[in-house]
């Protein structure tokens, strides 16, 4: 397959997928019962006059087709609209939420990848030994654990040692950059640990599986026959080739980093995009929901595309076609 | 071997660099609570709340916490203290005999936080802006200014408000209490054209100008607001130099923070936590609330027409074991009866009571002709008396428990109910239906939170709130006539009589069964004192005095 053809096809598919995602984004939130206006019927002093004014302000008095047209028109101008909730541009809301989520989820992902790779390699290398069970069983256990429950347990265990709520100490007055950075890191540790623990199991299993498959290949048998040590075989041959599927999973995970982690952010009161999306669903804040899901969709599509392109570069079997 | 991936040291370093970059960005993205720096950290009152504050703009007030903070940041003509109208920016007021013209005398020499004079011109500007944009950006304040024909300022400390018809004191002052007075020098430029800019102006620190006891100085946009004492405040000097308000997503989190001394005061905690808080050595204050939980009947277009039979509604009322509901789910509450709660003082009709009498309930249903079926469920119009109750999931776990008791109570009289739980937006959409037709349901369980004046508690059953706060859909000429009369009854005794009659009338019509009157629960550390009583807790949408007296011992 020519490289140009491959790239063009993948990019074209990504664009089409984005358009479909945009349309689905528009439809699914409006399929939910209730609107931002009906949600506000519980506001103190809310009367029908307020509801009518809000419906006009939010554009909910237009037909669905008109709303869809306006939505696409705004998107073409890179305008995600204004939040129904705080009346601020969705772009700035999402930017703030995203900048809060990305570091926490990135730290969790790095932790889960490194721990997953380490335990996966050990499980494959020391197959059928106690070390394999010690590696795999906790991984599966954490993977199966509800993340919000784990978060609450971690809070109970560590609340005396580390902060368990929020992103910063709000009473840290005029911190220096280092102080602020340290404060954020301190607050980030527990939510990232929680998320990392429930995620690393998937990497453990994928790496273990890929390693076992690779170690069954003929060239590994040849390497053994030559007299290479097990350690050298794992490091120089098996591990490298086993990383190909891991690259794919990591690239896909990167896309979901943008989505934040709703449950972890809720338990730890971390002001990220996941929790913002949850609130936007309850409030039927369509612009925020549409913007957040578009961001998530585009990031997943882009990361998928990147994964395909990286795979194309890394795997000679694909580029040779 | 081919071109396999090379996991070189360079790539490893690249990953490490990217990670460090992301984590460094964590430090760059927000400055954290820079604050103004107070003299001593003990001067800061750290408050935990369970509602998220997202709107510093007074035209975007959505939650009770938004109103709480607006009460502290902005003047109002009056406030409520011990549930009675009390001076705020207006130190006194009077009206003509017919209640159509109200005169407010303002505190002389008042100033905004930017040092500029706070005068009657600002009051006139605020009210006129609300009137001008009542059907648009200022719709949130439209009930507050309904019926006002003119607002004038004969001198810098006098405001005269004229209404199109007589207005009793409770109505005028009740709305005035939650109408923030805004600095004209800041807001005038946004009150032009269609007024859309009024709602989009962020109104955030450090450019915030207010006149209340506190001024926001730091807001992280999500879960923390820091306010400091306003040196120009026209009222008594607040006890705490600074106030930090921090949002917690769960009651567990806020209680743990209180126990760990991370915060000093927590507002509006679940009633079920009272005993736990006391055991933890915290000071717990409880106040009779104006909130209540009610079971609403669909009085407009129920799915099953027997809902319109008053005998059925009375029977269900008699079957409610309110004492058990309270002891299990809402310890400290009072059994519900009238729509006007006891916390409303003399407005509450104490002769409207509820009774628990299962035998009498069964007798009424037998009288209505609803025979008991073989499976213990009665039959009405050829179908089992089996109904769904639309349930607002935002009420929380205590309400689930209350529902279980309600379910058992109704089962004892041959009525089967099941819970249809949904979020608030879905709840309202289902209850009001398409074009407010209220079609497709029979029963709904919801909490009411009316303001201190009884008019809002009674509005819940009025025609003008169909599709809004009126969850039963009741629109009744007799009740409307009484409601109109009380809204124009200037004489307090006359108004009180009418309001008592309205409560008695609702007790015969029973559009809703008031199950219990809530209790507001606040808790604080023992080194703080001065927490004033209010039905909403010391942090209140209708009172400044309940909060400004708080100080460290």
How would you explain this protein's 3D organization?
The complex is a heterodimer of chains A (321) and B (553). Chain A is mostly helical. Chain A folds into two domains: 2-76, no CATH class; 90-319, MetI-like (MetI-like fold, Orthogonal Bundle), CATH 1.10.3720. Chain A is 76% helix and 0% strand. In chain A, helix 1 runs antiparallel to helix 13, helix 5 (90-125) runs antiparallel to helix 10 and helix 5 (90-125) runs parallel beside helix 13. With 553 residues, chain B is of the alpha+beta class. Chain B is built from 17 helices and 21 strands. In chain B, the strands form five sheets. In chain B, strands 1, 8, 9, 10, 11, 12, 13, 16, 17, 18 and 19 form an eleven-stranded mixed sheet that branches. The longest helix of chain B is centred in the first third of the chain and has 20 residues, at 9-28. The interface between A and B is large, with 81 and 89 residues.
How many helical stretches of chain A? Answer: 14
| Uncertain spans of chain B | 1-8, 28-41
**Number of continuous helical runs of chain B:** 17
Rg for CA atoms of chain A: 24 Å
Q: Report the CATH topology name of the largest domain in chain A.
A: MetI-like fold
Order of helices and strands of chain A: HHHHHHHHHHHHHH
Helical coverage of chain A, percent range: over 70%
Termini gap of chain B:
77 Å
Q: What level of helicity do the residues of chain B show?
A: 25-40%
Q: Can you tell me the overall shape of chain A?
A: globular
Sheet with most strands of chain A:
none
Category by helix and strand content of chain A: mainly alpha
Please name the CATH architecture of the largest domain in chain A: Orthogonal Bundle
Strand content of chain A is under 5%
User: How many domains would you count in the coordinates of chain A?
Assistant: 2
Total strands of chain A: 0
Mean of pLDDT of chain B: 90
Report the mean per-residue pLDDT of chain A as an integer.
84
Major interchain interface with per-chain residue totals: A-B, 81 and 89 residues
Q: Termini of chain A, distance in Å?
A: 5 Å
Any idea of the CATH class of the largest domain in chain A? Mainly Alpha
